[in-house]
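FAQ: What does a multi-protein file look like?

Like this. Sequence, then tokens, then the next protein.
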Amino acid sequence: FAMSAIADPLVRLLFEPRWYDAIQLIQIICLGMTFRSMSWPIASLMKAQGRFRTHMLVVGGSLLFFFPLTILGTVLGSVVGLTIAVSVFYTFATIVEFAFALKRPRRLLVDFRDVFLSPLVAGLLAVAVACAAGYLLVPRTGLEDVPLYIVQCVVIGTVGAIVYILGIRQLSPDVFHETIQRIRKLLPGS
């Protein structure tokens, strides 16, 4: 979510105007990769369980949906359609992989809520507040382009991180406190 939120000012800061059309594509693919990044621990879980064959079948089987979906996205919407198709694929592929990893189809919705819902809600809330701060408040400062984009990147990143941490603290207090304990153990003199 954070990369999607910061893509606009970051691309405008680092690249020439001919690359500005890529901003929308970066934002779409970053949203799709939100779920994909959640699937990496799922793949590790299956491998740790020694379920290499199951993992291979799930990943291989997903290819049966990847190619038709990307072709459909390209035909219907060109590059934007392809990007949306890839993002949709990764979202659903992660959910399917998650279902196979837990081996508890009756509890899938409960497990999905426990694993995905808090980070997604906190992430959406953080991005909404960060974008409001970065895009609605910052442009009113009268800055030139380059300083404006730098300030937007800093504001979006900082506000987003703070709101996300506060969101996780409220939605998943046990995860929040466990993370704090792990960080404290890593600090010198803890």
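And here is the next protein:
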Amino acid sequence: MEIYDAFKQLGTLRNSVVIVFTTCDKGVHYPIGHEHYPCFVRQLIKISKHYSNKKIPKISLILNTLGGNLPAARSIALLIKEFSEKFEVIIPKYAFSAGTLISLYADNIIMLEGSALGPIDPSVSDFKNTEIPETNAAQLYLDFIECPINTEIKAARFATINSHYDSILLGQTIRAQKQINNFCQEALYYKAPSNSLEKIIYFLTIESSCHHHLISSFEAKNKMLLNINSVSENETYLINNILNYAQDQLHIIDPKAIDSIKYQECRILVEGNRFFIASNDAGADFLQYHLTFVYNQQFNKEKPLSENNQKFLKESYIEDKAIDFSLSLPIRALK
């Protein structure tokens, strides 16, 4: 099936304009960020020109992402709502973290069988120990905001935390939790029952604080009271075709291709797309990257180049400094 036909048929069945947005494939992920916003602007302006009031009656966003920057996700969701009368999100696989936030702003969420949402738990950085990866804000919030009321216990716990983390982390954590609470309230204010709103937000941001917690369609519908719907078998087929097309456009390098390279000193140029957005009316947008690796025999003479060869990756990135990183934003029509 031609991809143009898949977009057209799904749009007819959903009575909407279909847009696909993916940031991940084959375990590789480039998070949602502010660089995606202008691409959505271009898409929506071009599509809206077909309507007399510049308002698109309905947008169906096929979304596939592991998350990213929460303020950026909010901006994208509000932008889509600004250009549309009705907005629905279709989740073929997963829309975690920032992807979940985008979904909350939608009027309707379609989750295919086995797809999942995830907690919205922002991460915070430690300025004292810069080598420590970003920390889950929800867990820190539980540790020193909701710890026992006894002041002595609080003081002792804070002293322990402060010995491991920069004290500014406390302010970061409170700010991050307040910010995401405000985003969730804004997204759910007119959708969730007022007496359940706080409980739903607590579940999303604190209770399910494990970042890898999967929120199934059943849990999203019954515990979070979201408007979750299913689609027909034909629609599912079309949605998967469109997502597979979008993921193929990312051109993520296959580790098996690297494994096949001979054990000699050589250079490898990796090209791919950090994300892919496409619609019938506005064509495709993607942000391209180029990485050049140098294989150094000094560190590994017998093993092939692969994702598992950490020595190769480390030396290429840090000591050999053999990286040519450039970004461009091509625009092309769907074939």
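Q: Is there any per-entry metadata?
A: Some entries carry free-text notes. For the entry above: The CA atoms of residues 91 and 280 lie 19 Å apart.
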